[in-house]
Automatic annotation (TrEMBL):
InterPro entries: F420H2_quin_Rdtase, Split_barrel_FMN-bd. It comes from the Bacteria. It comes from Novosphingobium anseongense. This is Nitroreductase/quinone reductase family protein. Belongs to the F420H(2)-dependent quinone reductase family. It catalyses: oxidized coenzyme F420-(gamma-L-Glu)(n) + a quinol + H(+) = reduced coenzyme F420-(gamma-L-Glu)(n) + a quinone.
Length: 167
């Protein structure tokens, strides 16, 4: 018998919450916004978030996105879930078009190389992410696509992000 995953619905005002979370993280220099209670979304009370900064592959604009992350074997892993939508989020396509990506965890930021785990490695990383953030398992049931994972490996420290970084 398979385990029944909880149904997760997108709460009203989700986009406003995402923008407010990013604003809090940026304005505090990472002192706030890293740890959040995710029980309302089917997660754990001690959910961790990073920021990623990337350039739009078409627009050339700098964008910053807050995401849940896992720390696995010296790599920071993010999921391109888009809540289980049938298409991947824009940030995922923009990272694929770049050699590096910038990320910030709390008050530290890094430039990083990235890779997409595959095969048995992906299975192991996916299991870790679903255990850490159960809502990813629910999101996968909503779509036929395999939700991509991005593993980022820091190569150099950089200045923390700010609202001035946004185009």
């Amino acid at each position: 018998m398979s385990e029944q995953l909880p149904e997760i619905t997108r709460p009203a005002g989700t986009f406003d919450w995402v923008k407010e979370h990013r604003r809090l993280y940026l304005r505090s220099g990472g002192r706030q916004g890293h740890i959040m209670d995710l029980t309302g979304a089917g997660g754990h009370p001690f959910g961790t978030h990073c920021l990623i900064r990337y350039k739009g592959r078409k627009s050339g604009k700098t964008m910053i996105q807050g995401l849940s992350y896992g720390d696995i074997g010296g790599e920071v892993v993010i999921c391109a879930s888009k809540g289980g939508a049938d298409e991947s989020p824009h940030w995922y396509h923009n990272i694929l078009a770049a050699e590096t990506v910038d990320f910030q965890i709390a008050t530290q930021a890094f430039r990083a190389t990235w890779r997409e785990p595959a095969g048995a490695d992906r299975d192991k990383v996916w299991a870790f992410m679903v255990d850490s953030y159960p809502f990813y398992g629910v999101y996968q049931t909503r779509t036929e696509r395999v939700i991509p994972l991005i593993a980022m490996k820091p190569i150099e420290p950089i200045a923390v992000f700010s609202e001035a970084d946004l185009d």
